[in-house]
Amino acid sequence: MAQKPKVDPHVGRLGYLQALVTEFQETESQDAKEQVLANLANFAYDPNNYQYLRQLQVLDLFLDSLSEENETLVEFAIGGLCNLCPDRANKEHILQTGGVPLIINCLSSPNEETVLSAVTTLMYLSSPGAGSHPELTATPVVQCMLRFSLSANTRLRNLAHIFLEDFCSPSQVAEARSRQAHSALGIPLPRTEAPQQP
Q: Where would you find the membrane-spanning parts of this chain (predicted)?
């Protein structure tokens, strides 16, 4: 378990976030990296932190972490990006720095939470004001959403239906269905963990 970063109580929010980023960059422990990234993802949920997280380049840290082999780091990184996407400046940064292909790659994760956050992030990025970014609804993405719309997981199935109905044109869905009918390939559905018994 990583120790809390040593921060002067007078430094405030920016100082604390800086200490977390420094710890993430300097630690060799995977457990510590996971804990720090989880903390940063949680801080990303608060709009009061957006400016500080941009200043500390945490968006780039999250994007870089999407390429990690450690699935837990990927889960926390995409969760952090998902939390940051409602902000226009954060959204534009992700779109302009080539983040979309990294997020799309998360759709093939075996981790259910990673996939759910990736779908939600794509929805935030596709929302009005994002400009034209055709890669967000490219045929392979739409095909993936069609597969997810058949998932036994209710959350994934519902998100996929919303994506298809609200962010894709009927012609995009028809084209994806047509191509899917001629292909045996597809992105596998994530593992669904069995509900835990109380």
A: none
pTM of the model: 0.85
Cα–Cα distances (Å) from 145 to 72, 129, 161, in that order, read: 23, 22, 8
| Contact between 54 and 85 (Cβ < 8 Å) | no
Task: Name residue 191's beta-bridge partners.
Answer: 111
- 104 closest CA partner among 132, 131, 133: 133
d(CA 78, CA 112): 12
Those residues with Cβ within 8 angstroms of residue 155's Cβ, 6 or more apart along the chain or in another chain: 116
Whole-angstrom Cα distance, residue 47 to residue 134?
28
Cross-strand pairs, 111: 191
Q: How far apart are CA 41 and CA 82, in angstroms?
A: 9
The DSSP secondary-structure symbol of 29 reads: -
Alpha-carbon distance of 76 to 34, in angstroms, equals 8
CA distances from 47 to 24, 50, 156, 176, 184 (A): 22, 5, 26, 36, 43
